Automatic annotation (TrEMBL):
Its main location: mitochondrion. Solcar repeats lie at residues 20-99, 109-195. Keywords: Membrane, Mitochondrion, Mitochondrion inner membrane, Repeat, Transmembrane, Transmembrane helix, Transport. It comes from Nothobranchius furzeri (Turquoise killifish). The keyword Repeat applies. This is Solute carrier family 25 member 53. It is a multi-pass membrane protein. The chain crosses the membrane at residues 29-47, 208-230, 260-283. The keyword Mitochondrion applies. It is found in: Mitochondrion inner membrane. It comes from the Eukaryota.
Length: 291
């Protein structure tokens, strides 16, 4: 994705090439949607651990008790998000990278440009997809099944709320998580791929391993923010506390234990291995012919 600034030439036909990064990002994310469906029950187990602080066996027991019909309740938003997210994230990062390279070619080190562009792309991503994540978290919370049995009822209830309490609940921690995560991903992906490729592996395998290792590290580092977001967004109505107050309550509910705060973190690693490893490999494979 990210070559040196000097390799980005400002020709008229570049407009078409810029749009290709959006297409490649959407395609790679769409093709990784099947693994998203397969591992969705795993994600749902993680979500229950995040909001109820329960061990794996209790979370699995909750899902078994609810039955297979409700097992995939809430799967639509992440599927839609996967495709749109890839389109926006990869495409916008590439656009920002090119613009920064052309406008300030000597201001920053070339190694930092992908990370800076990723940071900006992550901020825009948060603005666009926070409502999707809000609906997804409400759907996955089994305590909402009676009062909010359908997506239509959830959308109607959220519309009644103020924007900061409704669709954009937990916007600040989501922005921090997405901006930092995207910055780290695009800043580390290519260097890690280069190191792996140096061990004699094929380009496809190198990209897969690079995406896997990078996403695992990011997921673990930013997992507490994901737990905070899940707890802030799981309910509709009630007292709307700020991010700091919610974090204090969350930390207290976990008995000030990092181990309890990271409950479910191992399953996040599994999900990251599958989805981002595949997405990275497909994107890099598509990018190679036009690089």
């Amino acid at each position: 994705m990210a070559g040196s600034p000097d390799s980005k030439q400002d020709h008229p036909e570049d407009t078409v090439l810029h749009l290709q990064s959006y297409l490649r990002g959407g395609t790679s994310s769409l093709l990784s949607a099947l693994p998203t469906v397969i591992v969705f029950p795993v994600y749902k187990i993680v979500f229950r651990q995040q909001i109820h602080n329960s061990p794996v066996r209790h979370a699995v027991g909750q899902l078994c008790k609810e039955g297979p019909v409700k097992l995939y309740r809430g799967v639509a938003p992440p599927l839609l998000m996967r495709t749109l997210n890839g389109t926006l994230l990869f495409g916008l990062q590439d656009t920002l990278f090119r613009q920064i390279s052309l406008s300030s070619p000597h201001l920053l080190s070339a190694a930092l440009l992908p990370a800076l562009a990723g940071f900006g792309a992550g901020m825009v991503e948060a603005m666009v997809f926070t409502p999707f994540e809000r609906v997804q978290n409400v759907l996955q919370n089994g305590q909402n099944d009676r009062q909010l049995p359908s997506m239509r009822s959830i959308l109607a209830r959220l519309k009644e709320q103020r924007v900061q309490h409704g669709f954009y609940r937990a916007f600040l921690p989501i922005t921090a998580r997405n901006a930092l995560g995207s910055s780290l991903y695009f800043g580390l992906k290519d260097p890690v791929r280069g190191v792996v490729a140096g061990q004699g592996l094929s380009p496809l395998a190198s990209s897969f391993i690079s995406g896997t290792l990078t996403s695992m590290a990011i997921s673990l580092a930013l997992y507490p923010l994901s737990v905070l977001v899940a707890n802030m967004q799981a309910q509709v109505g009630g007292e709307a506390k700020g991010a700091v107050a919610c974090w204090r309550g969350l930390w207290k509910s976990r008995h000030r234990s990092v181990l309890l705060l990271y409950r479910g973190g191992s399953l996040v690693i599994l999900r990251s291995c599958i989805t981002w490893g595949i997405t990275t490999a497909i994107y890099d494979r598509q990018e190679k012919p036009s690089s």
